[in-house]
Every structure is written in C-alpha cells, then in structure tokens.
Amino acid sequence: MKQFIHKTISFSMALIVLFSSFSFTVNQHICGGEIANTTFFIDADNCGMDMNVCENNSSEKQTSFDKEPCCKDVSTVIQGNDNNQQAQQFKLDFPFLEFVSTFVYTTIVRFQDSIEIFSYAMYKPPLVYKNIQTLFQVFRI
Questions:
Q1: Which residues share a beta bridge with 29?
Q2: Of 10, 28, 34, 45, whose CB has the highest number of CB atoms within 10 Å?
Q3: Is 137 left (phi over 0), alpha (psi -120 to 50) or beta?
Q4: Are 29 and 47 in contact (CB under 8 A)?
Q5: pLDDT tens, 91-133?
Q6: Using one digit for the tens of pLDDT, what is the confidence trace for 50-97?
Q7: 70 and 54 in contact (C-beta within 8 Å)?
Q8: Do 70 and 49 meet the contact criterion of CB atoms below 8 Å apart?
Q9: Does the pTM of the predicted model rise above 0.70?
Q10: Would you list the domain boundaries of the chain?
C-alpha cells in the first residue's frame, strides 16, 4: 500500500511539472459574436460563412470600408513556466578524485589481510539433552 501511494504521488508530481512547463495555443473562430469553433494547437475551422461582411439590417447604405467582418479568428497563446530549477552540476576536480581513489585503495588493501574465514563459523553445536549446570549443582552468581 505504501509503495502504491509513493508511486501515485511521484507520478502526479511528474505530471504537474510537465503541464506547468507546457505551452500551447488555443484558436477560436468567432462568428456573429458567438464562438463557433475552438481548437488546440491547430487553426480553427471556418463556420462556412463568408468572412467578408456581415449582413446589416439597417436601412443606411454603408460602404464596404465601414462594414465590419462577420467572422474573426482569435488565437490565445498560453505560456508555460520556463523558470524551472535546473539540477546543479557536480564538478569533480583532480585533487579530490586523487584523494578519493587513494583513500579507497588504501582502505581495501589495509583491511584485506585482516579478513579471515574461520572454519568454525558454520559449526552447529550439539543438542543439549541434560542441563549440566543443574546436574552438577554449579550456580555462578
């Protein structure tokens, strides 16, 4: 259970980091003041109407310069977080590596001879059938 919770939390934190740094574009096609189509990453499809001019019910005669287009495309770019902290580089210099290698080598060589394999380490003692201390009445205090 603990391992499942740990994996779930790790996966959710990875998704949070991924989506917080993820940038995307939302494209909308607005026709007559209403949203006709919304898409992500690609251009929105047209509604099929002419993009030139809306039909106006007013009796005034307007020139084509005064008329507003009926449809318009709106693109919204949502920027992700690019300020994620990068892992710090651990730079090893030569004196440090020389010290570590010398220390490891001397430690291994120094204690290699002192490690002995005892032949009695795997020896199992015989089973005790009688309690010898009570049999001889020897009680050490």
A1: 37, 73
A2: 28
A3: left
A4: yes
A5: 777 788 888 888 888 887 777 666 566 667 777 888 888 888 8
A6: 655 555 544 455 555 555 667 888 888 888 776 766 666 777 777 888
A7: yes
A8: yes
A9: no
A10: 2-78
